[in-house]
Design goal:
Blueprint lengths: L5 E4 L11 H9 L4 E8 L5 E3 L20 H4 L18 E2 H8 L6 E6 L6 H14 L5 E5 L2 H10 L4 E5 L7 H10 L3 E3 L7 H9 L3 E2 L7 H10 L4 E3 L8
Parallel strand pairs: 1-2, 1-10, 2-5, 5-6, 6-7, 7-8, 8-9
Antiparallel strand pairs: 2-3, 3-4
GO molecular function, one term: phosphoric diester hydrolase activity
Length: 240
């Protein structure tokens, strides 16, 4: 349908509960070239895939993920909020995600770090999960936090990092910051992308992967602008 790669935002989140393994597997089955997901950390230092700081919206629990142990998180139901067909879906751990990704060697995995990795010990634990799985080259590390991206790049010069920018912050300044970080890409809100923006990004050696685009006409327009991939909730575009 489109000539550019589509990355599934939190998995196939248009049809499945976001950031669950069923959503990621469905995205791959739908032909997504990549998946995007969010990484947070539990009270006892384990990495889990969850967008919000609080578990309330996407599980049957309450409270901040940072104040729960992994054992407590594993008791949560991360599917019933979306529909009866998904009752009992667990919160995905980073370890379980990378084990799945290891079986999909062509899949791009965009990990958006919602937890700061400026702490060296925390950074080492996080990167160790990926290195042990052997999926390092498949991973793009994205964040709004420049300190996290700097920490990743200092420790791992071969890491692929991407700067996320808010809709109101997507500007030429954001491109310069990304280039200074040694980023391989910038992830702007799609409404701020223009052909000129993409041209400037490419001049700086940056790929452009806008988020979150659920309108086929908008994707066609972004393709005309020259973006390198698009992040969407609907990788098959079977919107209701």
């Amino acid at each position: 349908m489109f000539g550019i790669p589509l990355w599934a935002h939190r998995g196939y989140s248009g049809r499945y509960p976001e950031n669950t393994m069923v959503a990621f597997a469905a995205a791959v089955e739908a032909g997504a070239a990549g998946i995007e997901c969010d990484v947070r950390m539990t009270k006892d230092g384990h990495f889990v895939i969850l967008h919000d700081a609080y578990v309330d919206r996407t599980t049957n629990g309450q409270g901040p993920i940072s104040e729960m142990t992994l054992a407590e998180v594993q008791q949560l139901d991360a599917g019933s909020w979306f529909g009866e067909a998904f009752v009992g879906m667990p919160v995905t751990t980073l370890s379980s995600l990378v084990a799945y990704v290891k079986r999909c060697p062509q899949l791009v995995v965009n990990l958006e770090w919602k937890v700061s990795l400026a702490d060296p010990a925390r950074l080492q634990r996080a990167m160790g999960v990926l290195e042990r799985a052997g999926i390092w080259k498949q991973v793009i590390h994205s964040s709004f936090d420049t300190q996290t991206l700097q920490a990743i790049r200092r420790a791992h010069r071969d890491a692929n990092v991407a700067l996320l920018t808010e809709e109101e912050q997507a500007s030429p300044d954001g491109l310069e910051v990304a280039a200074q970080l040694g980023a391989m890409a910038i992830h702007p809100h799609y409404r701020r992308v223009t052909q000129r923006y993409v041209q400037r990004a490419h001049q700086l050696g940056l790929r452009v992967h806008p988020y979150t685009v659920d309108n086929p006409k908008a994707i066609a327009w972004l393709e005309d602008c020259g973006v390198d991939a698009v992040i969407t909730n609907w990788p098959r575009f079977d919107l209701p």
